[in-house]
Amino acid sequence: MKRIIIVCEGQTEQEFCKDVLQPYFNSKDIYLQYPLIKKSGGGLVSWTALKKQIENHLVQDKEAFVTMFIDYYGIHDRHVFPDWEASKKVADKSQRMSLLETSMHVTIDNSINHRFIPYLQLHEFEGLLFNDIKVFEESFRPDEFLNKPELEQTINANPNPELINDTPQNAPSYRLSRLIKGYNKIVYGSILAESIGLIKMRNKSPRFNNWITILENL
Questions:
Q1: Where do the domains of the chain lie, and which CATH numbers do they carry?
Q2: Residue 19: is its pLDDT beyond 90?
């Protein structure tokens, strides 16, 4: 059985790996591990610290592949990711992610980086949830919607939910907390993701789909 270690930014991503990705990869005879980023308590750390954790996983388990499930939205100048400043000059967000992922890959030790698959979620995990209004209607009572028309408009206006605006006021997680009463990203993120299903998520989110395709074909 193949093994993939997915270094997760937080509990939301970790629950998604456990509840949605693991059952799917089990059917492909692939076992997942999904540790949190160390030294953060949830959230990002500097690239130096994250790189050390990735390399430690690769060295300690010589058969496993290592990838990561972190949000581009959460990366800031202080994290000093490779080619971070250069990436800001790339207007196309998909190309920007590719530049950063390539730069991360080449900084990992050459003897082990063939088992490292860098991945940045654009813009954040919650963007994947803006997939189908019916799923929200089945998951929440009518009185729990604080602004259902805006939620519907956001879904309809974004055929690729990965591209939903990344400003602080319009980031996917902020929108959900603003549009749904008592929204808890750790609890409801996984519930909504399970209800949507991996197939629908992959159909609407090309970068996410490409990552899953790479992993299942290792």
A1: 2-124+199-216 (3.40.50), 125-191 (no CATH)
A2: yes
